[in-house]
Write a structure and sequence with these properties.
187 residues; alpha/beta; Oxidized Rhodanese, domain 1; 5-stranded parallel sheet; two-stranded antiparallel sheet; 7 helices; 7 strands; 18% strand; globular
Length: 187
């Protein structure tokens, strides 16, 4: 009987979504996001990754639009992080407001942001939106691609949790109507 109870508890625990330390009251799982956007027209779902990253990682057409929160400055190298410098999109708030208006929503709508892993841009972009008057901003915990495995033969590969690994709709190439494009921003 004791073994049965332990097996039941373990099975139940393993079926629950895995959340990172960044999960908090504004985090929402990929599955919950999918359900919410299917059930409500009053949600703005934004991919906040740099569009070049999307080209190489993948994209979901479930998002309403791509508005980068942090953008890549390809003219400056960040030696501490061994990558190009990232800077905050100076037009992020105005672009979010424009996306809300285009969808017929206002600043009280639920806004869900999603980055690659949920930590570097997803959570900070949702907090930034909240700090700027968007009280119902949230982020997708574990983001689009999820966390990298820490150990084993596939250590370093992002093959656990996240939108892509939960079997939710995605594709390799971005939708040109939804991807952030400088040529369309200047109009």
């Amino acid at each position: 009987m004791k073994n049965l109870i332990i097996r039941t508890l373990l099975t139940t625990a393993l079926a629950l979504p895995i959340y990172t330390a960044n999960a908090n009251e504004i985090g929402i799982s990929p599955q919950e996001t999918q359900i919410l956007i299917q059930q409500s027209d009053s949600v703005l779902f934004i991919d906040v990754r740099d569009p070049v990253e999307i080209m190489f990682i993948g994209f979901t057409d479930e998002v309403d639009t791509n508005i980068p929160y942090l953008m890549v400055d390809r003219s400056q190298w960040d030696t501490d992080k061994n990558r190009f410098r990232l800077y905050q999109n100076p037009d992020f708030i105005s672009q979010v407001k424009a996306a809300l208006t285009a969808k017929g929503l206002d600043e009280s709508a639920t806004i869900i942001t999603m980055c690659r892993s949920g930590s570097e841009r997803g959570l900070p972009s949702a907090k930034f939106l909240q700090d700027n008057g968007f009280a119902n901003a949230r982020y997708v915990v574990n983001g689009f691609q999820g966390d990298a495995l820490k150990e084993g033969e596939k250590a370093g590969l992002r093959i656990q949790n996240g939108w892509q690994n939960e079997g939710l709709p995605w594709k390799a190439k971005p939708n040109p109507e939804k991807i952030y494009r400088i040529d369309l921003q200047k109009r």
